Amino acid sequence: MLRHKSYWETLVLCFLCLLFVLERFEGATTVPSEVAALNAILGRWGRTASATSSPAWNISGEPCTGAATDSTDIVNTAFNPGIKCDCSYDNGTTCHITQLDLNQNYLTGPLPAFIGNLTKLQYLAFGTNALSGSIPKELGKLTSLISLSIGTNNFTGPIPLELGNLTNLQKLYINSCGASGEFPSTISGLSSLQELWASDNNFTGKFPDFSRTSLVILRIQGNSFEGPIPSSLSNMTKVTDLRIGDIQNGSSSLAFIRNLSSLSILILRNCRISDIMPSDFSRFTSLQRLDLSFNNLTGQIPQSLFNLSLLSYLFLGNNSLSGSLPTGKSESLLNIDLSYNQLGGSFPSWVSEQNLKINLVANNFVISGSNNSVLASGLNCLQRDIPCNHRAPIYSSFAINCGGNKTITSSDGTLYEIDGRALSSASYYVTETNKWAVSTVGSFQDASNADYTQYSSSQFQKTQEPELYQTARISPSSLRYYGLGLENGNYTVMLHFAETRIPDPPTWKSTGRRIFDIYIQGNLVLKDFDIRAEENSLTAVTRKFIVPVTDNFLEIHFFWAGKGTCCVPDQGYYGSSVSAISVNPDFTPTVSNKPPSSL
Ligand SMILES: *[C@@H]1O[C@H](CO)[C@@H](O)[C@H](O)[C@H]1NC(C)=O
Ligand SMILES: *[C@@H]1O[C@H](CO)[C@@H](O)[C@H](O)[C@H]1NC(C)=O
Ligand SMILES: *[C@@H]1O[C@H](CO)[C@@H](O)[C@H](O)[C@H]1NC(C)=O
Ligand SMILES: *[C@@H]1O[C@H](CO)[C@@H](O)[C@H](O)[C@H]1NC(C)=O
Ligand SMILES: *[C@@H]1O[C@H](CO)[C@@H](O)[C@H](O)[C@H]1NC(C)=O
Ligand SMILES: *[C@@H]1O[C@H](CO)[C@@H](O)[C@H](O)[C@H]1NC(C)=O
Ligand SMILES: *[C@@H]1O[C@H](CO)[C@@H](O)[C@H](O)[C@H]1NC(C)=O
Ligand SMILES: *[C@@H]1O[C@H](CO)[C@@H](O)[C@H](O)[C@H]1NC(C)=O
Ligand SMILES: *[C@@H]1O[C@H](CO)[C@@H](O)[C@H](O)[C@H]1NC(C)=O
Ligand SMILES: *[C@@H]1O[C@H](CO)[C@@H](O)[C@H](O)[C@H]1NC(C)=O
Ligand SMILES: *[C@@H]1O[C@H](CO)[C@@H](O)[C@H](O)[C@H]1NC(C)=O
Ligand SMILES: *[C@@H]1O[C@H](CO)[C@@H](O)[C@H](O)[C@H]1NC(C)=O
């Protein structure tokens, strides 16, 4: 039975309560060494914390007031920089700073070592800035930390071993932070770690063993790790989102994924996996996205994979898969890349389903008769032996306004053709004239509605043809342009680029980096190419290559190798970009360079 409080009891309680609030208001003070450290950190960059009641924080006043102590959530709000305090220490007389958010401020210079004075910090974020110098080992003193974000910065040198002292750490974001060297085993062994983003650094040495962590999310693409991927990762049974990419050497097996049945995203792209494709995927009932492209998988495509009811993106391109396509397919599976394999046989009825995106370029399909109409036209030109006008060349030059709606004639008379087809996750297009073609695979992770072309009406610098740069085709994985039916000989390939979305400094948005590789005729011609490292934003950049055509066929391949930032200025903003291509012979052609007269 509830006992009703007496009048006096209630009054006394209220009075005590009021006293407590008054004391909090008047008396609770932040530990001086923390105030000093906070002032020094913010003052350094001329910043003021706006997590207090007034937007411009009184730097000599008490920081733990207003939004810093009430229920306001400082993360993802307008409070930037923002702090949160816990004033319950010493019976409500002492405040400690528990959260500090300095994300997206374009801070420069080193991160001061006295960050280590904020010893009660649980949440620390200074990602997406331009901080340089080494990552201070004093971060290892912040043993209450639950979440640490230092990603997208300009640091140099290794990740300090001392971060391994952060035994409460659950989330660590060090993607694109500039770090290099071996990945500390003290960190890969943190048992409380649940989420780690470590892509796009220059980590070297053996791929870390994360089997002792509690990882649910691991993103670790675009480094320089040596394979193999340790088989002990089979222990990470809680993982739902696993993205590994760009392993340098040593061949890996796929056996470790067998028991990782909670996965909803599995990306093991460009990992040197040499294995037979597993036949049974039925346990992966949560799987929505599977990318095993750019490996060396052999065997057949298992029907069990095509039966998964949640799987919607499947990328198996650039392996050595053989046999024919599965006869059945779940309704959800609408994006299928099987390009660059050894597949053949006849097409099952599902290939002509509406809304299905499927790329079957560079396989061994024989396209004729009844096969001819079910897929986008021109696939016959893009099989392994490229039969269109093969050994009977008719062309000697072409130019493309990549992603562009209109034909553009440049001042030198070059006609840049329209390339306006909407291509996305697994698509290709061959011109009616069979002169050139384009093929793209990959989907922008974390940006389901991302565009695969870009448009900017800006005035572009350093070019006579600014219109040529207004559109570009962009690709999150692999984008290839082909010249077909070309007379053999040496050609000059001119590639045109301009960065339109990542602005110039000083703004946090300028910390984005788009980095990709370019192969022509299978040879790497540009590695870690960064358009904006060459020129300012909205400025034309061109690259010229002399390449041989020996089999009536030219291939220009734009490839994302996991490098560059993932999420600046927006989530899912990365990958290759090209504005225009022109190809001209270095010899006097003997062919007409005109399509057959029937067209
Ligand atoms: C950090 O704390 C130490 C003592 O704990 C103090 O001597 C030093 O001044 C503090 N540094 C800053 C910048 O507040
Ligand atoms: C800042 O706060 C201190 C005391 O907390 C006060 O004396 C001072 O006048 C304030 N300065 C401004 C500019 O408001
Ligand atoms: C906090 O309060 C408890 C009783 O409520 C008291 O015993 C203790 O001495 C107080 N501590 C401080 C630091 O005031
Ligand atoms: C990054 O740091 C290097 C020196 O380590 C410096 O040359 C470069 O300008 C910095 N970049 C940015 C964007 O701050
Ligand atoms: C922190 O980590 C370093 C390197 O791993 C170690 O030498 C040091 O003893 C650790 N410090 C504490 C207080 O645990
Ligand atoms: C990455 O590290 C390798 C080996 O230490 C070095 O050769 C290379 O220049 C580094 N790359 C970058 C971008 O720092
Ligand atoms: C698997 O994880 C457990 C803790 O969950 C750990 O004790 C064990 O050593 C791990 N096994 C391997 C092979 O890493
Ligand atoms: C998967 O789990 C089963 C049963 O727990 C175990 O016997 C097997 O070794 C595991 N396989 C891998 C690759 O870890
Ligand atoms: C990978 O490369 C490193 C250094 O380049 C070498 O030490 C290592 O033996 C190589 N591993 C394999 C499996 O080839
Ligand atoms: C791929 O695997 C096959 C069979 O194991 C092997 O013959 C071939 O050399 C491998 N290719 C590459 C590029 O590793
Ligand atoms: C390109 O054409 C499509 C329709 O075909 C239109 O929706 C789009 O706005 C055009 N884009 C530009 C940049 O003109
Ligand atoms: C083609 O270009 C290469 C250099 O890229 C040159 O060595 C070769 O002689 C050229 N061939 C012809 C037929 O001009």
UniProtKB/TrEMBL annotation:
Keyword terms: ATP-binding, Glycoprotein, Leucine-rich repeat, Nucleotide-binding, Phosphoprotein, Repeat, Signal, Transferase
SMART domains with a match to the protein in the record: LRR_TYP
EC number: 2.7.11.1
GO molecular function: ATP binding; protein kinase activity; protein serine/threonine kinase activity
Signal sequence annotation: 1-27
Domain called Malectin: residue spans: 397-581
Name listed for the protein in its UniProt record: non-specific serine/threonine protein kinase
The organism of origin for this protein: Musa acuminata subsp. malaccensis
GO biological process, one term: regulation of innate immune response
InterPro entries in UniProt: Leu-rich_rpt, Leu-rich_rpt_typical-subtyp, LRR_dom_sf, LRR_Rcpt-Like_S/T_Kinase, Malectin_dom
GO annotations of cellular component type: plasma membrane
EC class (word): transferase
Annotated Gene3D superfamilies: Galactose-binding lectin (2.60.120.430), Ribonuclease Inhibitor (3.80.10.10)
Domain of life: Eukaryota
Pfam families xrefs: LRR_1, LRR_8, Malectin
